[in-house]
Write a sequence for this structure.
């Protein structure tokens, strides 16, 4: 029974992957960025200034503002194709991928965090075709800039642990979101505990 | 009247005249008009200098005391041919806001029905009356401003010309010129504050004028753009963009040329900050989970690593002379502020109080740093003397973080969540005159432009 279930799931996942491979390239092409219309400045000719003995005159115009031109590099959005999302949902639901949680201002792995990463590493070793993105996150209680550095270290501590367990380091990337993208918007310890984590995500590339 | 004479020093006035005629690349400059008016400036200077010289010598001490005093000024509404509502909110409101906040002027209440003259100054018990006239000349609006003392003499006179859309800018320029005429230093009324806001649905980089007006979005990534930082010439802004599961450093230039991706070759790329004296940018880079302070040139070359501790380093900020960099390090066990030479040598710890310190930023004179400091579990703005290391808290409600100095060193802008959401506030460095500057969405990471334009 369990075996047949696994087969069904495997078949389902392979199907998903094939669909993903077919859809991702199609999703990649984006509209070229539209150049913003730059308001032109009025340049007036030299005015006919009446003579004044005690008044100087200054020409005032607004300086150019920040503008975006068509030389802007192409930016890919962070929205992943829905089939990858589905894959991540299934992997998380079934415990194939488990996030690691941290103590306040810490990037060392607790026993629970190690167990979570071990389970994830085991699954990834069996499925070496997937690329993993590890997002580092912090709770809101620290300062923003330091927390970006702290969450970078968290993500890398998870990566190091998984590569030590045999996952190919070339298939793992890290990114730090600091306290920018909390999972729980609350302001209590329950929320903070959820937000101090290394979040594991399968990515298409 | 004569009491404020030493403040309008001939030398200061003369240097202003010179600056005007030399500032060739000024985008709003008009060489011909400047040359024409230069003669007038010199005439004015001579008048002021000859009539003021004797008094300066007779009462030097009284004059020194008065230099720090506040000048009472009467500011009647402009005499104008335009509808009043075309003047009120784009011109008169920002002008009076500027002057009231200048720390140089106090606006005197004025009695009704007296024309802008020496009589009005006397009736309002003011030293000066600011006589304003706004007229329309074809497409141009012309502002004529005179500072008249109680004897009826014009102590400052200038005419400003431009399309109606620049009326607010005229108000700020006039305020700057008046501050400079009275205390010889530039005003901050054309300075701008960069910040990050999520009011569009995504975190983007925004700008506002110093008084919180004219808020506008300058990036449009629909992703996560944060941590804006001005270049010393106010033309460029560096920030961090999260896209495609990476965080990268970008620079935008107000004079065009598009967005530049600074390719550092390392991870993180947060807290970018321009050197005040070179093309270098200091930032936090990370290799294999070890965040350190790095420097790279703005053309993506010459990457240098300044710190090499195993601990977390973050949040670099240059001293105004470009010779030192403050940063945050966890090497002692908690995040604390350190300073090093710009080559990465001579590291010294600056903060010893507070459980968690970050976001150090230098006052424009380089004598003080302001930073975020956790005291009894709450973040507050702390100001410390760099040499003596003595510090004081500027207490406020909620959590208060990421301070930034105004270019004249009189104000600090910062973010606070006292309203329940992150908003940007501004206060004097003694904590008074607190003003909330943002209201829509959440707003954070203020960075005040380094010069006043």
């Amino acid at each position: 029974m369990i075996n047949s279930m696994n087969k069904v799931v495997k078949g389902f996942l392979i199907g998903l992957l094939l669909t993903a491979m077919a859809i991702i390239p199609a999703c990649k092409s984006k509209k070229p960025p539209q150049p913003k219309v730059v308001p032109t400045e009025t340049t007036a000719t030299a005015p006919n200034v009446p003579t004044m003995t005690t008044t100087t005159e200054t020409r005032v115009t607004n300086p150019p503002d920040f503008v975006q031109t068509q030389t802007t590099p192409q930016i890919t959005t962070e929205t992943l194709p829905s089939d990858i999302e589905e894959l991540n949902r299934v992997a998380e639901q079934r415990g194939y991928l488990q996030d690691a949680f941290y103590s306040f201002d810490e990037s060392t792995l607790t026993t629970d965090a190690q167990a979570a990463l071990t389970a994830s590493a085991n699954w990834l070793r069996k499925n070496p075709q997937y690329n993993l993105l590890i997002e580092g996150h912090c709770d809101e209680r620290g300062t923003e800039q330091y927390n970006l550095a702290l969450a970078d270290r968290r993500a890398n501590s998870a990566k190091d642990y998984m590569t030590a367990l045999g996952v190919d380091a070339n298939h793992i990337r890290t990114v730090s979101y600091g306290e920018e993208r909390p999972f729980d918007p609350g302001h209590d310890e329950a929320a903070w505990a959820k937000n101090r984590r290394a979040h594991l995500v399968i990515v298409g590339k | 009247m004569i009491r404020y004479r030493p403040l309008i020093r001939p030398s200061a006035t003369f240097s202003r005249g010179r600056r005007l005629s030399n500032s060739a690349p000024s985008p709003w400059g008009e060489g011909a008009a400047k040359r024409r008016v230069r003669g007038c400036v010199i005439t004015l200077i001579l008048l002021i200098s000859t009539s003021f010289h004797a008094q300066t010598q007779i009462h030097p001490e009284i004059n020194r005391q008065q230099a720090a005093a506040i000048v009472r000024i009467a500011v009647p509404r402009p005499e104008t041919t335009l509808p009043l509502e075309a003047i009120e909110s784009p011109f008169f409101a920002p002008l009076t806001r500027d002057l009231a906040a200048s720390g140089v002027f106090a606006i005197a209440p004025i009695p009704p029905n007296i024309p802008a003259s020496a009589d009005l100054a006397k009736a309002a018990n003011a030293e000066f009356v600011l006589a304003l006239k706004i007229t329309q000349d074809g497409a141009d609006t012309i502002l004529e401003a005179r500072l008249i003392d109680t004897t009826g003499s014009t102590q400052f006179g200038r005419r400003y010309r431009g399309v109606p859309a620049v009326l607010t800018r005229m108000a700020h320029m006039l305020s700057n010129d008046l501050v400079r005429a009275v205390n010889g230093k530039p005003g901050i009324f054309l300075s701008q504050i960069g910040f990050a806001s999520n009011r569009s649905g995504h975190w983007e980089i925004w700008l506002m004028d110093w008084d919180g007006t004219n808020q506008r979005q300058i990036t449009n990534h629909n992703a996560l753009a944060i941590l804006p930082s001005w270049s010393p010439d106010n033309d460029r802004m560096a920030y961090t963009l999260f896209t495609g599961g990476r965080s990268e450093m970008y620079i935008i230039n107000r004079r065009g040329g598009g967005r530049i991706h600074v390719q550092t070759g390392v991870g993180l790329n947060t807290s970018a900050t321009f050197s005040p004296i070179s093309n270098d940018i200091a930032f936090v880079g990370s290799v294999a989970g070890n965040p350190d302070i790095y420097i790279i040139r703005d053309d993506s070359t010459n990457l240098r690593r300044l710190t090499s501790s195993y601990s977390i380093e973050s949040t670099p900020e240059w001293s105004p002379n470009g010779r030192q960099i403050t940063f945050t390090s966890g090497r002692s066990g908690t995040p604390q502020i350190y300073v090093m030479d710009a080559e990465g040598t001579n590291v010294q710890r600056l903060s010893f109080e507070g459980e968690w310190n970050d976001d150090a930023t230098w006052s424009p004179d380089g004598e003080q740093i302001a930073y975020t400091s956790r005291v009894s579990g709450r973040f507050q703005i702390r100001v410390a003397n760099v040499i003596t290391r003595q510090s004081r808290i500027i207490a406020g409600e909620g959590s208060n973080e990421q301070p930034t100095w105004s270019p004249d060193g009189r104000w600090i802008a910062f973010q606070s969540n006292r309203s329940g959401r992150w908003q940007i506030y501004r206060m004097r460095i003694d904590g008074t005159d607190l003003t909330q500057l943002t209201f829509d969405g959440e707003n954070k990471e203020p960075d005040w432009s380094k010069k006043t334009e």
The domain at 81-203 of chain A is CATH 3.30.1330.60 (60s Ribosomal Protein L30; Chain: A;). Chain A touches chain B through 61 residues (CB under 8 Å). Residues 2-28 of chain A form the longest helix (27 residues). Strands of chain A lie at 56-59, 100-101, 131-136, 172-176, 197-203.
